[in-house]
């Protein structure tokens, strides 16, 4: 690339420079490019520019000679833009020394070159004097940073990093070694432009565009790698959080289950808080502390309890006898709204005491049932010489039945242990105990309601059939030979001692509840018993609305062989 010393225009070859000087600066009128002076010849114009516009001319020619464009991609490979750097190849004085001879000797025709050379030689000393005077006139502080103090920096190749002594050598190096990267368009043709498909940047060279796009792809790949790493970390964190949440949930569920289990243990007397004896003593101490029991009474009851436990027989302090007989008299003389009534054999009522309050209903109902069997001669063979056992003795008898092989599943649920606990018993344990005593009985389940509003009319019908199966004529009051029925439902058990058929054909059960104290039951023994006293015994269809019911009905006596068969069936 060649630059005109007069106007600064850049051309590509020496013939083009000669044509430019001939057409622009020889044939046309010569005009000063700085002050528009005209009407002089070429030599005079050169002298004018050298003397009047020395500084401006030197600056223009210096920048005109800086024609090396260095295209460099940013080192951090992020902005991906083309940077052009213009380097000053030499100081003003070296430019003056090197450029004028080169242009005047090679670019001009022979005659013009000789004239220009002579003119330059004649005015060189004068020009130097002018430069020296200018330097002296200028304040050094003001000159700082101007072109006079421009330090020489060897140009560096923007493609391979090679350093040359001057810009001309660097230009030749770039043209020879990196011509394929320059891709300089020929004069008179439009330079092709290339748009980046990713960011829209316009590039003049296809190879530069390719490198630029490669940077985009590398950044995209790097970003995708970062995204994959971040995604992996997010998944790992989510997995850890899920595991922690599952662990807390399982811990909370385990804690709730343990709480429910402990609650059930307390409810069913399996919390190792002691049995009948411990509760009896503890409750009597509370009564003494509250002033409702004298200390002497406490010691007397304690002695009676210890004696009862020692012999295994109930002390009878919660027993009420003669109620069935009193009911017979009442129905004979009163109860005009009752059409017929069926009563079981004689039954003693037992209610809960300090020692079994809250959990002993099953044991008390067994005592009621056993009291009826002991009064029935048909059961003398299997119950001969037996008395009403106390609650700890009943627990021991059930454990013995388990050891014989009865109800292994129920024994497992209660850990094969009842003594010393407040464990509840139900229909299965009563059946097991009676069968071990060779009393023939069976369990009947009423597992769902058979009437409106959750009632169980079929339960009443079954009990009516049980008591009315014996044909004893048609009296109003029928004293049957049937033992009472053990009735179990969720959370409680009672004893059915009879059933009424009222004049409107509705049925009503007569039930002994172990939760009813003796003082209330003793009201039924009065000669002038009123209908209101029977309220605690009467249960109509609408009064029994539990979801499920079980009954244990006694049918007779088992032989020894039948007892063994029953054990085999249980296994």
TrEMBL record:
The keyword Iron does not apply. Its main location: cytoplasm. GO terms for molecular function: cysteine-type deubiquitinase activity; zinc ion binding. It catalyses: Thiol-dependent hydrolysis of ester, thioester, amide, peptide and isopeptide bonds formed by the C-terminal Gly of ubiquitin (a 76-residue protein attached to proteins as an intracellular targeting signal). InterPro entries: UFSP1/2_DUB_cat, Zinc_finger/UBP_domain, Znf_C2H2_type. Its EC number is 3.4.19.12. The keyword Repeat applies. Residues 240-264 are annotated as: Disordered. GO terms for cellular component: cytoplasm; nucleus. Keywords: Acetylation, Cytoplasm, Hydrolase, Metal-binding, Nucleus, Repeat, Zinc, Zinc-finger. Residues 240-260 have a biased composition (Basic and acidic residues). Interacts with RPA1 and RPA2. This is Zinc finger-containing ubiquitin peptidase 1. The lineage of its organism: Eukaryota, Metazoa, Chordata, Craniata, Vertebrata.
